[in-house]
Amino acid sequence: MKEHLFSPTFKPALSNRLLYLTLLLGLSPWQTTAYANPTIRQYNIPAGPMATVVNQLAETGGIQAIYDTQVTQGRVSKGLRGSYSTEAALQKLLSGTGLNYTLSDGTVNIRARAKSDAKSFLPVANTQEPQSDISKGQMMPKVTVEADTGNPYDDPNWATDPYNPDYNRPNANTGTKTDTPILETPVNIQVVTRKVMDDQQVISLNDTVKNVAGVQPGFSAGNSYNIFTIRGFGTAPADTSQSNSVYREGMLLSGIPQSTSALDRVEIIKGPAAVLYGRMEPGGLINAVPKDALAKPYYSLQQQFGSYDLYRTSADATGPITSNGELLYRVNLENLDSGSFRNGLFNRQLNINPNLTWNVNDKTTVELEFGYQRQRTIYDFGIPALGTRPANIPISRYLGDPSIGESFNRDDYLVDLDLEHRFNDKWKLKWKGGYVHSDTNDLQFDGDTLNEQTGELV
Question: How high does pLDDT run on average in the chain?
Answer without folding.
Answer: 79
